[in-house]
Amino acid sequence: MAATDENLQVKTDAAPPGTTPPEPPSGPVAAPRAGMPRWLPRAMVLALALIACFQLGSWAFHQVTGLLINVLIAFFLALAIEPAVSWMAARGMRRGLATGLVFLGVMIATAGFVFLLSSMLAGQVVDMVEDFPKYLDQLISWVNTTFHTDLSRVEVQDSLLHSDWLQKYVQNSATGVLDVSGQVLGALFQLLTITLFSFYFAADGPRLRRALCSVLPPAKQAEVVRAWEIAVDKTGGYLYSRGLMALISGIAHYILLQALGVPYAPVLAVWVGLVSQFIPTIGTYLAGALPMLIAFTVDPWYALWVLVFVVVYQQFENYMLQPKLTAKTVDIHPAVAFGSVIVGTALLGAVGALIAIPAVATLQAFLGAYVKRYDVTDDPRVQGRRRRGGAPPLARMRRALKGPNHPDAASAAGTDADAEARESEEP
Question: Which residues does the annotated region (Disordered) include (predicted)?
């Protein structure tokens, strides 16, 4: 029955014989509506999840940036004391005890230097406060003589004490005491963090190397140990160069301060040497400010002489002493050393400037052990020499000015031709 209905339907739809079948309707045919792809919602959720993870990671990285910088400083400090700790450990002493003794020696030396410097500075500040009226009288006398004025010390003191800027300065200083206290506590906590991490890195150095090598194949373990040794050597060389420059700077400033008769010349010389070499960027200005202040208590003109000497010696150190000495001890080009300090300062500030040179020296030495090198061709252009037989440019210019008919020009031309012929005959 179903088949009969289908046949009737087919006959009904078919066109009768002898007639033209109807044309299909003209115009665009509406396509069936396509739904949203099934993968699109998943892709959108995945993209949002990746963006959220990136934002969370970026936020977390910015939050722990300070801790990462402290760990980096501690690692380089551990590399610096590694030779001393290893030397004592090789003679039977436990590494923890050896590390503690090294840190104890450094702390005692630092505390002694700070105590001597603080006592000296306190005494000089008291002397300056007591002698301030005398300096003020000398200044007022010079102003009255030079500019034909009639000033007195009482008027100047009253104008200073009742000035608006002094009152504002006292108010700002009172409100900034809490900020200064917070900064001091933060600096102490940062120093404690660096000390603890550097102690653990130095005391557990072999254990740390074993833990790192345990997750690497044997072929890579030797490279890690080699990189560690190179880092220790280069960091030690950098500290050696800094210590040598601190010694030279201290001796030079001691001679100047002793010649001027400035008190506490040995302590000031040690201050200038250490601060100028181990505090990047602003260390030179901090180091020179204190000797100028002490020299001012003896004679104001002495402070000017100290300033001139600090500026001149700094230029000598930057352009002559430091590039050569750093290049010899750390074994990097002076231009690379200077550029690494600039890049390190731009990335990490003063910390980057301090560790830039040993880090670059370590990387350069490590890459140099694995980069394949070839023999350099003996081409004069590569060696920086002039080709044989060719006359210098100045001689050629002289011959051109004399003209081709000059006898010297003819003889020189013959000499050049003979030299070219000899070159062509050589194999």
Answer: 1-32, 381-427
Examine the domain organization and report whether 231 and 340 are in the same domain.
yes
| Cβ-Cβ contacts under 8 Å for 271 (sequence gap 6 or more) | 117, 287, 290, 291
Domain hosting 411: range is: 393-427
Q: Is residue 192 domain-shared with residue 305, that is, in the same domain?
A: no
Evaluate if residue 53 carries a pLDDT over 90.
Answer: yes
Torsion from C-alpha of 155, 158, 161, 166, nearest 10 degrees: -40
Tokens encoding 302: 């002495």
Angle at 382 between CA 379 and CA 388, to 5 degrees: 50
Q: Considering the domain boundaries, does residue 250 fall inside one? A: yes
For residue 38, count other CB atoms closer than 10 A to its CB: 7
Same domain, 338 and 412: no
Give the count of domains, the chain.
Answer: 3
Same domain, 73 and 201: yes
Residues 294 and 317 in one domain: yes
> What is the distance between the alpha carbons of residues 186 and 66, in angstroms, rounded to a whole number?
11
For 87-129, write each residue's pLDDT tens digit.
Answer: 888 888 888 898 899 889 888 988 887 787 777 767 766 776 7
Looking at every residue in the chain, the average pLDDT score rounds to: 75
Q: What is the mean pLDDT of residues 335-342?
A: 75
